[in-house]
Design goal:
87 residues, mainly beta, five-stranded antiparallel β-sheet, 14% helix, 43% strand
Length: 87
Amino acid sequence: MAGIVYEESLDGLTLMEYIEFELRKPSFFVLGLPDTGLVGVISANHIVESMGLKEVAGIDIEALMPPVAVISKGEVRPPSESMLRTI
């Protein structure tokens, strides 16, 4: 993940875009939220990697997300990740 190219916050929800992208139809959104054992984040990451998709954005909801850090391939990731696949 290179860096954040766009970030916007509203009522405690922060959206971070990692690359500029354009949506095409149909589009699918895969969101992995941290839960017990980080199963949601690990599952979403597996889907994205195994299907050769791109991670384009992430979200953070400070008041609702547990204070954890996710590390993937040596990089610290937001506690919740969102990935988008366009066909």
